[in-house]
Design goal:
Blueprint (H helix, E strand, L loop, with lengths): L2 H27 L11 H15 L6 H40 L6 H33 L1 H5 L10 H15 L10 H41 L5 H33 L1 H9 L4
Helix pairs in contact: 1-3, 2-3, 3-4, 4-7, 6-9, 7-8, 8-9
Length: 274
């Protein structure tokens, strides 16, 4: 394994991990036109939510638009950084895998070190992939993503009163003669979009992982039984990708249900069940 290439990838991985936690907030605040940051975002959203509901329009109020724009930029920045991190980790993983397969002449300690490095890189790659997907979902539907910042159990104040009104309107049967308030209509649409994004992303990733699993099992079958290191690595990767694809299929199915009929899921959220 080229030492300089490995060192550069490790340094780049560390830098991207730091950027993943530090960079999105700073990048999102650029051009926000107001003092918004991760520290005051939840409070700003709660105030904007009350303002938006009381305005009674589908279009965002100025305060809500400012918060949603910030959150959109935050998710885009984080998705881009996470995607770059994933590419770097995949490259690093390929190098580690090749080194491990050529490790026949190395000592047991060195082989164990390569195996540990491979496990760590794999876990970090899974983290980067999940982070990328979650932030693409948040960028597609930033308003729905912000809803998780609402204290649905609040019992006092103007926000609590607003949440009660939302719950009452969601509990009313759809098509019961009363028109859905425009802000609630927007919430329902964005909630559906939020889950549709995850359903599509989950399905796409499941297909990719199934393809990778097929390649891995094919390599396993074609490898001579005497080459135990290659067979073990191919088999382990095949099992991991199969299990991951099954999880993603379940995620895609569940989110498809919420995207198709978003109102019950949104009602469950405001009742504290999401």
């Amino acid at each position: 394994m080229p030492g300089r290439t490995l060192a550069a990838l490790v340094v780049l991985t560390v830098a991207l991990l730091v950027a993943l936690f530090v960079g999105p907030g700073a990048l999102a605040a650029t051009g926000s036109g107001a003092a918004l940051d991760e520290g005051n975002l939840a409070e700003s959203f709660r105030k904007a939510f009350v303002e938006y509901w009381n305005a009674g329009n589908r279009d965002f109020s100025p305060g809500m638009e400012r918060v949603v724009d910030y959150w959109f930029r935050y998710h885009v920045a984080k998705a881009v950084i996470a995607a770059i991190l994933l590419i770097v980790l995949v490259t690093l993983g390929v190098l580690v895998r090749k080194a491990f397969l050529r490790a026949g002449g190395l000592g047991a300690g060195q082989r164990a070190g390569l195996a540990s490095a491979g496990i760590l890189v794999t876990l970090l790659a899974l983290f980067a992939a999940v982070t990328t997907v979650a932030n693409i979902q948040g960028a597609v539907a930033p308003f729905a993503s912000l809803l998780s910042m609402l204290p649905t159990g609040a019992r006092d104040g103007e926000l609590a009163a607003t949440l009660d009104q939302v719950r009452q309107r969601l509990a009313a049967p759809s098509g019961a003669g009363e028109q859905t308030p425009p802000p609630l209509d927007m919430m329902i649409d964005d909630f559906a979009r939020y889950h549709l994004a995850m359903a599509v992303l989950g399905a796409v990733l499941a297909v990719v992982l199934i393809g990778m699993s097929a390649v891995s099992w094919h390599r396993y079958a074609r490898t001579a039984s005497s080459d135990r290191r290659t067979r073990r690595l191919s088999g382990a990767f095949g099992v991991l990708t199969v299990l991951s694809s099954l999880v993603l299929i379940v995620v895609a199915v569940v989110n498809t249900g919420n995207a198709t009929d978003p109102r019950p899921g949104l009602a469950a959220f405001f009742e504290g069940g999401w």
